[in-house]
Amino acid sequence: YNISVVNAKGESAKVKLYVDDIPQAQESKKPKILKLPVAYWGTLNPAGDLDKVQFEAHAGHSLVLDLATKSIGSKADATTITLFDPQGNLIQADSGFDGPEPLIAFTPAKTGRYKVQIKDSTAAGSPEFTYRLSIGELPVVVGFYPLSVTTNQDSDIQLIGFNLHDAKVHVKPVKPG
After folding, report:
1. In whole angstroms, what is the distance from residue 55 CA to residue 66 CA?
2. Which residues are CB-neighbours of 99 under 8 A, at least 6 positions away?
3. DSSP-assigned letters across all residues of 16-53
4. Cα–Cα distance, 170 to 74 (Å, whole number)
5. Which of 68, 78, 99, 148 could serve as 132's disulfide partner, Cβ 3.0–4.6 Å?
6. pTM for this one?
């Protein structure tokens, strides 16, 4: 939502307010272990900053780590997330090369405390390099099938992604495009 304050002298600048259906957490000087699901808000500041986040994960749960920067109006443009297991071994890293923003989906082999690092690949940073890292058994659509349907005809579209549980959408397009 865009919100502003209005008084007799006029209206303030608009500020974005994000509303979510999962618990929120924010970066602090004292590191904490996040409980899932969570949307964690942080800032890569100063230049070269590397944020580290820890969370408890349970074996066999299909987890998604979804990093948002551009979509929330951040100046961060080349962010990378790197995931490590409880022993510190690298599991996966993503810089958003194959999508608009970094996304990791994985199923922990064992229960434990996992770690994520968030950094700007160019080592840039400022108070405007904000991010939101959503972690949990979150539904994420990355594709669909079929890629086209006939106009004026009922069709079922299969959603493809993570934690969707065989999700389908029923559509009846009324015009081409």
Report:
1. 14
2. 142
3. E----SS-EEE--SS--EEPSSEEEEEE--STT-EEEE
4. 35
5. 68
6. 0.86
Query: How many whole angstroms separate alpha carbon 140 and alpha carbon 94?
Result: 16
Tokens of 120: 């700007």
CA 142 centroid distance within chain: 13
Rounded CA separation 93/27 (Å): 21
Q: Check: CB of residue 135 under 8 Å from CB of residue 38.
A: yes
33, 52 Cβ separation under 8 angstroms: no
Q: What is the DSSP letter of 78?
A: S
Q: What is the mean pLDDT of the chain?
A: 93
Radius of gyration of the CA atoms of the chain, in A:
19
Q: Which residues of the chain are modeled with pLDDT < 70?
A: 99
Q: What is the 3-state secondary structure (H, E, C) of 63-96?
A: EEEEEECHHHCCCCCCEEEEEECCCCCEEEEECC
Please check whether residue 49 is in contact with residue 121, taking contact to mean a CB–CB distance below 8 angstroms: no
3-state secondary structure 147-160: CCCCCCCCEEEEEE
The confidence score (pLDDT) of residue 112 equals: 97
